[in-house]
Amino acid sequence: MDDRLLSLLMVATLAVAHLVAGQLRFLAGIPRSVWLSMAGGVSVAYVFVHLVPDLAEGQEVLAEALGEGLLPFLEHHVYLLALVGLAVFYGLERAAIMSRRQRRASSGEDAAGRGVFWLHIAMFAAYNALIGYLLQRGGEADGASFVLLFGTAMGLHFVVNDFGLREHHKDAYDRIGRWVLAVAILLGWGVGLAGEIPEAARAALLGFLAGGVVLNVLKEELPEERESRFWAFALGAAAYTALLLAL
Q1: To which H or E segment does residue 125 belong?
Q2: Most exposed of 110, 121, 148, 233 (fewest Cβ within 10 Å)?
């Protein structure tokens, strides 16, 4: 199969994942689903086994693009951008939690406010578009193995994200949010098809993505009230790590 067609099929599958994840009722409830914990483990494994090594290469690209001595206090630009990605999504999570808390106190409604909803959706739409872009460009550069490995990890990650977003935004996410995110990944793929962004910008965005993936997985796994399954998370991470190393 042509690599471009394969990446299109994968990105379409990821878009559908957002549209149907809410119908997977067996994943809902407390204690946290074994399958969601395993999916989180797979996503984090991909970040540390494949994306972090790519960040080392991206660091060289950024250093060359910025020039020696231009920003000496930012010696590790890409890793700082990973930190920024983690911090941004942590801030979004806190904003959603605080908004829900305030609305419960004032009106009894357990959903984040409209402003937080649109902020959340806008950031995740950009996040999804980046993943769509990377699928298209990475597929052309590295072939079918990249598309399948990266696409599988991100597809499972999308299901994890979907449950977190639905918890914060309830009906607004089902009516609007999931459709925006599904379209965003297709648009990102289209941008990759139309042309390539500068290598330094790609490296910076990859760093941001790595930090975002780690935070978005751990925020779902760590809260005590989730009653998450550590063994399932560890099994997912170990199994996908073994697969990545074998290939």
Answers
A1: helix 114-142
A2: 110
Rounded Cα distance, 177 and 23, in Å: 15
Sign for the CA dihedral angle at 228, 230, 231, 237 comes to positive
The parts of the chain modelled with pLDDT lower than 70 are: 1-3, 26-27, 29, 58-76, 139-141, 224-226
Give the Cα separation of 142 and 135 in Å (integer): 10
Tens-digit pLDDT profile for residues 231-246: 888 999 999 999 988 8
CA–CA dist 46, 238 (Å, integer): 10
| pTM for this entry | 0.86
Contact at 8 Å (CB) between 174 and 111? no
What's the confidence (pLDDT) of residue 37?
87
Burial class (CB in 10 A: 0-12, 13-18, 19+), 123: middle
Short-list 247, 185, 239, CA closest to 40: 239
**Chain-centroid distance, C-alpha 245:** 22
CB 89 within 8 A of CB 119: no
Q: Is the omega angle on the peptide bond into residue 53 within 30 degrees of 0, that is, cis? A: no
